[in-house]
Amino acid sequence: MYKFCIITVGPLKEQYHRDICAEYAKRLAAYCRLERREIQARRLPDSPSRAEINAALDAEGVDIMRAVPRGAYLIALCVEGRRFTSESFAVALRAAADSHPAVAFVIGSSYGLSENVKKSADLCLSVSDMTFPHGMMQPILYEIIYRSCSIISGGKYHK
Amino acid sequence: MYKFCIITVGPLKEQYHRDICAEYAKRLAAYCRLERREIQARRLPDSPSRAEINAALDAEGVDIMRAVPRGAYLIALCVEGRRFTSESFAVALRAAADSHPAVAFVIGSSYGLSENVKKSADLCLSVSDMTFPHGMMQPILYEIIYRSCSIISGGKYHK
Q: Least CB-CB distance to B20: which of A16, A83, A129?
């Protein structure tokens, strides 16, 4: 069974986002072992400078890289990454999962991810050219993983 | 105040999706008058033929076009549409809202939209190359509208 790990920065604040993730986690249990690792978000002042943001991203980036399971294929979500259709992403995910002990997905804070995490990632995935709130990206990622698993297993979910 | 109308096919089944939309509707009240029109989804057998799907889409399409407010600028969400960044979409939405009595957004059923609706739309908007469930597209659309309104009004939401 594939092993997937979702790494996020800071807690998911809204109950409705937690509810969606819980529902997908339940459904995904049929397809994979899914683990969630949450690293601490660094505190920033109300109107942080670019330097303060970068320092926070760098510190979070160190924790993120520590949270990646050993030997895992790392997928970082970022707006400037590569775009996929659902079908082509399922193919890429299957290839990564077949050849690695785990696949880790990372979603940054509301300020994004450090350059170091993006450079270290095996794949930067862009879901959309539009920006979405950090909290909404988690349900979106669960849905992407679930749809991929369904496509890989030949299920009916993706028509 | 801008007038926006969201047209959808069939009810939003999941409570968590309804909760997100309700939260955004509350926040959007500061920026616009937002109306939601739901047209009836046509029933289809478990494994419908292409002809059955097209007949359902055509029938839903007639209802959708009837639900569009008079003179409205029509934006249809479909995967093969045009992509925007959050900033460029805000510019396009502002231009449309400034020159029309209303802007209508339409999200199709899980089988999508009829060709006629797509052809009638002033703009086909592609949020992602990936497919998302029909129910999840509504919270995503509310978020896009909210972020656009915040950008247009110079708010801090989009950093």
A: A16
